[in-house]
Every structure is written in C-alpha cells, then in structure tokens.
Amino acid sequence: MNLRSLSLSFLAACMLMGCSSHKTVLPYFTDLQATEGVIETMEYTPDIQPDDELMITINSSSPEATAHYNLPLSNPAVQSELKLATSPRQQTVSVDPEGNITLPVFGKIHVAGMSTVALENKLTDMVRKDVTDAIVRVQLVNFTVVVAGEVSKPQTIPVNRNRFSILDALGAAGDITPYGERSNVLVIREENGKRTFARLDLNSSDVLTSPYFYLKQNDYVYVEPNNVRQANSRYNQDNAYKLSVISTVVSAASVVASLVIALAIK
Questions:
Q1: What tens digit of pLDDT does each residue of 175-190 get?
Q2: CA 88, CA 127: separation in Å to the nearest integer?
Q3: Which residues of 188-208 are buried (b: 16+ CB within 10 A; e: fewer)?
Q4: In the list 97, 133, 141, 201, which could disulfide-bond 53, CB 3.0-4.6 Å?
C-alpha cells in the first residue's frame, strides 16, 4: 500500500505540474509586439520622508568660505577622506519625525515631501546669499530596496541614484527565476505613516506607467513562486514526511525483530 500510495502521489504531482506549467509566461511585456515604438516616460524623484538620512555636500571654490555651513566632522575616516583642502565637506543629517533637519547657520528646515533636487536648489539659494559660487548636493543615504522570493539573488540593494525602477531592482537581484510568477510581483511601500502595496504584471507594458514602477526608499519587492514551484514544494514536503514515517516504521520493526531474535536464542 505504501508503494502504491507513493506512486499515485508522484503521478498526481506530475499531472499537476504538467497542467500548471503553461500558466507562467516567462517573457516581460508580451504585449509589445511591434519592432519599435515610443512609450512615454515619467518624471520622478523620490520624496524625502521622516527618519531619512541625507548626505549633504556644501562646497565652493574656497572651501573655507562654506565651512561654517557644515556640521563638525567627528568621524576620523571621513576626516581622512577630506584631508585635501579642495575636498568638499560632507555631513549626514537625520530627518526628524516632524520632517525637519537642522543645519548650522540656518537652523531647522522642513524638508519632508521635497525631492533631493528641490532641497539642493533651496539650500543653494540660501548659501549663495553669502557665497556666490556655492554648490550643494543632497543624496539619500538610506535608499535601499529589498528584493525577495523567486529571484536568483535575493538581497537588500543600496541605491545611489534617484531613478531606480523595479526592472533595475530585478536586474540587480539576478532576474526572476523560471519559477517566479511574473504577472503578480508584489511591491510593499511605507510612506506618510501608512503601508501601501501594489501587484504588478510584468508581462504587460502597463507597468511602465505605474506609480510603483519607480521604487522608493525601503520598498519591498516580492516575487511569488508560480504553481510549478508550489507543486514541487508540496510534493517534496509530502514525500519527505512519508519517507520519515517509513524510516521510523522500519527502525521500529528492526528493533522489535532484534528483541524477538534475542529472546528466541535465550
């Protein structure tokens, strides 16, 4: 009966895999059949949010002229990097829960909801009232994206640019495996104190205009397993359980047989 049960389970699993294997479409954007075309792009830069970390660089042709706009540099490694007189001064600033940062000279500045480019322009205008050739750069330090599930290399990806799409994230994670469901990729986002989510169909070019196409800091991307992977997993778990039961029964039978033989000899 055990052998027959295992055989039927294996046959059922094979049939299930055969029926479900046609449900996953591997190529992206299958609706783009033309040889060439035009798809409108979206203007996008991530907004600064509470608890973000910003790297702010303030410099000019005379670094001494902008030195008092910078926070003290207490990190020896950073000080070493800035040992040349022409090097820019860098500072990491935390955005408080109310969405403000505090800088020397200017004090508290509300930045939540602004893009890094908008903050650059704002600070540049403020500093240039004193230093006419001042240059300000603002970068999100904590811009990371997590990619998990059916990808070749699940990981947390550090992002060093403003425009980072879901395609960039999947590429950095080694792309979706053949067992990943491309038509149902989940993106979880936290902003303004709320968690939102969207499911993206990468088989359709509609994803290119989705508000979730460009990722934001701390986004979580999950590629769920397709029916083939789930069927294989269920079969492997069931088979492992049955083998464990059989092994236990065989071991128990062996012990009983040994006791019977020992008693018979006596």
A1: 999 999 999 999 999 9
A2: 15
A3: ebebeeeeeeeebbbbbeebb
A4: 141
Using CA atoms of 235, 240, 245, 250 in order, give the dihedral in degrees to the nearest 10: 120
Q: What is the mean pLDDT of residues 106-125?
A: 95
Tokens at residue 155, please?
């990981």
Single-letter amino acid, residue 240:
A
pLDDT in tens, 4-62: 555 555 555 555 555 444 466 788 988 888 888 888 777 788 899 999 999 998 999 98
CB 137 within 8 A of CB 76: no
Specify the pairing of strand 220-225 against strand 180-191.
Answer: antiparallel
d(CA 172, CA 147): 9
- The CA-based diameter of the chain, rounded to the nearest angstrom, is 106
Contact 155, 147 (CB under 8 A): yes
Structure tokens at 225: 């397993």
- Strand-pairing partners, residue 145, are 157
- Do the strands 194-200 and 180-191 form a parallel or antiparallel pair, or are they unpaired? antiparallel
pTM of the model: 0.68
State the chain's mean pLDDT as an integer. Answer: 81
List, for residues 233-248, the tens digit of each pLDDT value. 565 554 555 556 566 6
Looking at the predicted structure, is the pLDDT value of residue 122 above 60? Answer: yes
Please state, in angstroms and rounded to a whole number, the distance separating the CA atoms of residues 116 and 125. Answer: 14
Q: Cα–Cα distance between 239 and 185 in angstroms, integer? A: 29
With contact defined as beta carbons under 8 Å apart, do 101 and 94 qualify? Answer: yes
